[in-house]
Amino acid sequence: MEVSNETVVMASLIRLPEQPFGVEWPIVEWSHSEPVEGPARQRLAQTMATAFSPDSQSILGETHAILIVHHGRIVAERYGDEFDQASTLRSWSIAKSILHAVVGVLVGKHLIDLDTPDLISEWSDGADLRRRITVRHLLQMSSGLRFEENYDDPSSDAREMLFGSGRKDMAAYATSRPMEHLPGTHHSYSSGDSLLLSSIVGRVIGGGKEEALDFMQKELFHPLGIQSAKPRFDGSGTFIGSSYVFATARDFARFGYLYLRNGTWESGRVLPEGWVDFARTPAPADPNQAYGAHFWLAPNSTLGTFSAEGYDGQRILIIPALDLVIVRLGRTPPEKMTGVNRLLIELIRCFSTIH
After folding, report:
1. 42: which residues sit within 8 A by CB, 6+ positions away?
2. How far apart (Å, rounded) are the C-alpha atoms in residues 278 and 250?
3. Rounded to an integer, what distance in angstroms lies between the CA atom of residue 312 and that of residue 204?
4. Strand order, beta sheet including 62-70
């Protein structure tokens, strides 16, 4: 049997850790633990203090929350001024990774197939190459549709879809984009691909906004103990899966923890077998191997790090080799993102030195 390159990469992924014996699943409340002992504890305390110091804004912008889960327990948690454990914070493109989970639930129920074409009725013309686009292509950002993801340009597709002429029916805007590359041959990060996925999800679930929201709560949020999540929908009733889920830092951590635990929870499997590995396997069309399936990858990491990321420096880092989840939420302009990345690296080092 011929083995694909993607299968080979999946087989070489760092193993995802199991739930530690004696640690409660965070369905109602998170367990807490003191951070590691010795110099690593001091280093972590100093790094957390620096992240929230008044002087940090010149480097990091605003940091609203940092929460760290190690071996299943919260070991560090801090909030900026005017924020606390109950604050529901914006996801931006972390929503794309949440959308990946919703698609996974439907795949597990055999309601969506990754490789079936002819997804959109508007592309039914036999000569329309967009008919070849599959759910796999959309998840891996390789649809081939022309879509400019630029939030600094008011006329870009991302801005026009979210805030301009497309805002009332965002999937319709994405559907109208022309083909620029054959599906599966070119990687291009696109919120349009995510909105097309969201429209497919809505169609498969059936009904409208309320039915989609009920499905997300019943099949994803409630099993994890996530109570605060508030997905947003556009005027057509489509989940804005590119950008909008509001939740507390603790609930964003629960979502990351689901992926650290390979899609399982106390009650059993939430996501189908192999779905998390699919998320963290490099998309074949991405030459940098920095993107999987609606999750970002760290191709040079020896820790197996993958992440859900959003504009303004929103991050859920999942680090299998250290059994670690780090959530950082805030408001950071693009020119200060290097500071956020350095902060996250320093936080990881606090645990890598004692692992």
Report:
1. none
2. 25
3. 32
4. 31-32, 73-79, 62-70, 324-331, 314-319, 306-310, 296-297
Phi-psi domain of 82 (left: phi exceeds 0; alpha: psi -120 through 50; beta: other): left
Q: Which domain holds residue 106?
A: 5-352
Alpha helices per DSSP H over the chain: 5-11, 39-51, 57-60, 94-108, 135-139, 157-163, 170-175, 191-205, 209-216, 222-224, 249-260, 275-279, 337-352
Which helix or strand (DSSP H or E) is residue 73 part of? strand 73-79
Q: Residue 270 CA to chain centroid, in angstroms? A: 16
Query: Which tokens is 196 given?
Result: 């097309």
The yes-or-no verdict on residue 11 having pLDDT over 80 is no
Domains identified in the chain, total number = 1
The phi and psi torsions of 256 (rounded to 5 degrees) equal -60, -35
Query: Burial level of 212, CB count in 10 A (0-12/13-18/19+)?
Result: buried
Read off the tokens for 203: 């169609």
- AA letter at 190: S
Q: Are 229 and 214 in contact (CB under 8 A)?
A: no
Residue type, 322: L
The answer for residues whose C-beta is within 8 angstroms of residue 232's C-beta and 6 or more apart is: 239, 240, 243, 244, 245, 246
Give tens-digit pLDDT for 104-120. 999 999 999 999 999 99
Res. 4: pLDDT tops 80: no
User: How much is the pLDDT for 111?
Assistant: 98
Nearest partner of 339 among 81, 115, 61, 8, judged by Cα: 61
Q: What is the CATH number of the domain that holds 222?
A: 3.40.710.10
